[in-house]
Design goal:
The complex is a heterodimer of chains A (295) and B (348). Chain A has one domain: ABC transporter involved in vitamin B12 uptake, BtuC (Orthogonal Bundle), CATH 1.10.3470. Helices cover 75% and strands 4% of the residues of chain A. In chain A, the strands form 2 sheets. Chain A has a two-stranded antiparallel sheet. In chain A, strands 2-3 form a two-stranded antiparallel sheet. Chain A contains 11 helices and 4 strands. With 348 residues, chain B is mainly α. Chain B has a single domain, classed as ABC transporter involved in vitamin B12 uptake, BtuC, CATH 1.10.3470. In chain B, α2 packs parallel to α6. Classes of the chains: A mainly alpha (295), B mainly alpha (348). The interface between A and B is large, with 42 and 41 residues. Chain B: One of its GO terms (molecular function) is branched-chain amino acid transmembrane transporter activity.
Chain lengths: 295, 348
């Protein structure tokens, strides 16, 4: 029983990471039709910026508020990079979907190489607060704190995103834009501002995921983003492009399935199962679980 | 003159086939003379990737399918042949045949599922399928693939003419033959009615459907043919590098193929080959240059990224997407147009 609980919490922790990466991807894709291969880069930028800040930024560190400051710096870096990418590279190619994908592909190749040049190809030890390494006992199972941290962070982001989409004017524009972009444009609203906004939000969430993945795995490497990115893509497709709630549900399904099958069916079997799930969902509902709708 | 225009590819092919007999040294481009094993090895790799890029272009440039899973079929060719030879002791021709047939079957099966969805969703599904291949290779089931270490090819079971540094020239000819085969197949397909349907699918799929043709079937044919060509390329690549490494199954390999095609000019006859050859050459050359002192002499901010070939190539690629949408193959028409605007028209 305690194994099942530990596996569930670990699976949910993984799901939290997937959700943080996938929510931004999903919004960007739903609104702007950009399949963003550079999203993994935002994640790595967040992770490295946090790592750098914990060692070099005055006031930041590996413990307590210093760590919060370091993560905040990482998230800020991810947001800035994502906004710049949208403004400088994606915007000139507005409505040329294939070219946009190509640019993000080039960016992901060049970005990973640049990170390698700057910080070396080998994984760096990531600063993590001591309390994340302690365990708590939940119903007889000893669960490491870092998984709970992941889950709480993802829940906060999910709540904030839903509130933003539901109760703010820009949230309304984004929801409407996902549903019918031409109509929003026809009503005289500059939907491109919303593009920058969703890129910034997605970059922030991905950077947070990068920092938390660093805490979870204890190290950071230039390629850590791309391996998470593929499963985030799967989550986005299963959840339905543009849907935040769909991404959350799909992330939970994928995380739990992967964790349990990997444990009981041997290493690697869970990853294969996830792809099989993707194939099934696509054959059954090509638009994903949620269809096309933000929120 | 018209003969020259028509048969220059044959001439180029013959020239490339005779190249190992020349001992010319091209300083700066290759370290040794052209017929040294080192230079021939790089050239052969360039030719293989030229062929692979051309095969990938059958999907991307000619049929309009953006697949992110091409590495899977390439890897099936590489690992399939390697495993059959090294682990089961099959002779090379049989192993290669079985591996290519298996990869083709997988391409039919997975293509049949993936082509049920359209556009970007198709890209993502192919990406996910290829990821399974990468995972399987990394997880090393029953010690078959060798995991992260890769699987060295058991050279004792190969024909003697393909083993050893002295015989690099034979591998070079093999790579050239592969490229020639791919180009011939693609050319024949492009001339055939099927090829016209492919182009129709790329330009307007709905219209092809309205004409009473089944887009799904034609796309599956393109997907399968492209997968088979990739697997065959995998066999040649395996012989050339004398082993399989997990990199061949990674999604990065597909992305580099995409970069080659876009750099060269998607949908053109020789553009993708040009892109593949140039990319592979630069990838090797920039690694050498990055390791030499030439880059270290630059200030630190520049030296770091410039020693990474992928940084340079990725940047070139991004610039190409903005400024040369037709790739290298489109450059000539653009330059002609430019020249016409620059030079004043002759007076009547």
């Amino acid at each position: 029983m305690s194994t099942v609980i530990l596996m569930t919490v670990t699976g949910l922790g993984l799901a939290a990471l997937y959700f943080l990466v996938a929510s931004g991807l999903s919004l960007v894709f739903g609104l702007a039709d950009v399949l963003n291969f550079a999203h993994g880069l935002f994640l790595s930028v967040g992770a490295y910026a946090t790592w750098w800040a914990a060692g070099n930024l005055p006031g930041a560190g590996a413990e307590g508020w210093g760590f919060v400051l370091a993560v905040a710096f990482g998230v800020l870096a991810g947001t800035v990079v994502a906004s710049l990418v949208e403004l400088v590279m994606i915007r000139p190619l507005y409505s040329r979907t294939i070219e946009q994908v190509l640019v993000t592909v080039g960016l992901s190749l060049a970005g990973v190489a640049a990170l390698q040049a700057g910080f070396g190809a080998d994984p760096r030890p990531f600063p993590r607060p001591a309390w994340t390494q302690q365990v708590v006992t939940i119903a007889g199972a000893r669960v490491p704190m870092d998984r709970l941290l992941l889950i709480v962070a993802a829940l906060v982001v999910l709540g904030a995103l839903l509130a933003f989409l539901r109760w703010t004017r820009y949230g309304l524009i984004i929801r409407a834009g996902v549903e019918n972009r031409e109509m929003v444009t026809a009503l005289g609203i500059d939907v491109r501002k919303a593009f920058t906004l969703v890129f910034a939000i997605g970059g922030a969430a991905a950077a947070l995921a990068g920092a938390l993945a660093g805490v979870y795995s204890g190290s950071v490497s230039p390629t850590s983003g791309s391996s998470l990115l593929i499963f985030a893509f799967i989550v986005v497709v299963i959840g339905g492009m543009g849907s935040v709630l769909g991404s959350a549900a799909a992330a939970v399904a994928v995380g739990l399935l992967q964790q349990f099958v990997n444990y009981y069916g041997g290493s690697g079997a869970g990853d294969v199962c996830v792809v099989a799930l993707l194939a099934l969902v696509l054959l059954w509902r090509p638009a994903g679980l949620a269809g096309k709708a933000a929120a | 003159m018209s003969y020259l225009k028509r048969f220059w590819p044959v001439g180029a092919f013959v020239a490339l086939a005779l190249l190992p007999y020349s001992g010319i040294t091209i300083p700066g481009l290759f370290d040794g003379p052209l017929n040294s094993p080192g230079a021939l090895q790089v050239l052969a790799l360039c030719l293989v990737f030229g062929g692979l890029a051309a095969g990938y272009d059958l999907l991307f440039g000619r049929t309009g399918l953006l697949s992110f899973g091409h590495a899977l079929y390439f890897a099936l060719g590489v690992y399939g042949t390697d495993i059959l030879i090294t682990k089961f002791g099959y002779p090379l021709p049989l192993a290669a045949l079985l591996a290519v047939l298996f990869a083709t079957t997988v391409a039919v099966a997975l293509g049949a599922v993936a082509l049920r969805v359209h556009g970007i969703a198709f890209s993502m599904v192919t990406l996910a399928f290829a990821q399974v291949g990468a995972i399987l290779v990394a997880r090393d089931p029953n010690g078959l693939t060798g995991g992260e270490e890769g699987l060295a090819l058991d050279a004792s079971r190969l024909p003697a003419a393909l083993v050893g540094v002295v015989n690099t020239v034979n591998l070079y000819w093999l790579a050239l033959a592969y490229l020639g085969l791919v180009l011939t197949v693609l050319h024949r397909v492009a001339q055939s009615p099927t090829g016209r349907v492919f182009a129709g699918l790329r330009d307007d799929e709905r219209r092809v459907g309205v004409l009473g043709l089944d887009p799904y079937r034609f796309k599956l044919v393109a997907f399968t043919l492209s997968g088979a060509l990739a697997a065959l390329g995998g066999v040649v690549y395996l012989l050339l590098t004398a082993g399989a490494s997990p990199h061949v199954a990674s999604s990065d390999l597909t992305l580099t193929l995409l970069v080659m095609v876009v750099l060269g000019g998607p949908g053109t006859r020789f553009g993708p080959v040009l892109g593949g050859v140039l990319f592979t050459y630069l990838d090797h050359r920039l690694t050498d240059v990055g390791a030499s002192g030439a880059v270290d002499a630059l200030p630190g901010v520049l030296a770091g990224p410039l020693s990474q070939p992928l940084f340079v190539l990725g940047t070139i690629f991004i610039l190409a997407v903005y400024f040369f949408p037709g790739g290298l193959a489109g450059l000539r028409t653009r330059l002609t147009a430019l020249r016409r605007t620059v030079t004043p028209p002759p007076r009547p």
